[in-house]
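Protein in question kept underneath.
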Amino acid sequence: MIQTITKNSIRDLLPRRKKTSHKGQNGCVLIIGGSRDFFGAPILSALGAIRTGADLVHLFVPECNFDVSRCYLPEFIVHSYSGDYFHEEAVFLALSLIDLCDSVVIGPGMTDREEVLVGISIFLKKISCPVVIDADALPVVKNMYLHDKQAVLTPHAGEFQELIDKKLPDDIASREKILCEYARSQGVTVLLKGHSDFIASREGKIVVNKTGNPGMTAGGTGDVLAGVVSSLIAQKVEPFFACQIAAFLVGTSGDFLAQKKSYGYLASEVANTIPEVIRDILAQEPKIA
């Protein structure tokens, strides 16, 4: 039987911060996203990353998104490139930021324009650092060899069906088998978002997360989730475990909010509730005599 993620299992996996740590030792994340059409998505990813404990979060966005990204939080470090959409020339600027960061998110709000997909493809081929591939970057993965990358994919069912060129069956056992086979064959970790989240490792292991509620269909919660995954990876959590923690934290944050606001909460509120969820989990940690 597939293992269900629990509060106790997440408590064991959550990274602990050393009392002697200083700025930069608890992870630095680079978020690449945005476009003229969607400025909010990379901001929400960055918010998820910083609320999960990353020390530093860099955003790399088109110049049309620069001011709103820079003004959203003073803690964000924002870089921009010319134009309204990601393109090949922007890739080399993005690569210059890699050495500053421990993990990368690419895709939120970038659109599926041809020049964007070309730029994403070039970028992914050139990097070796851990990368969370989300949203508009996912189509690029379809024709790419990722075994030599530390890659995490965060599709919903529709996006995953596009990757495998077939409809996912309703039968849970068949769905799990397809997901495991894909993750193993492609050498990636997959967090399949849905009513229940299924997480498959590159070795073919699989677990399920059952936190969350229908209020999480609000736009932007997936962007938050990608940022949380990347933040945890930057804090040296293995990708398979980072996805488990992220799915549980984001879902539980949504559950906290649903108790107060029914289904009328926002993705930004989900991100901002994550520290409260982490505090609740760690507060119940057994004391050592």
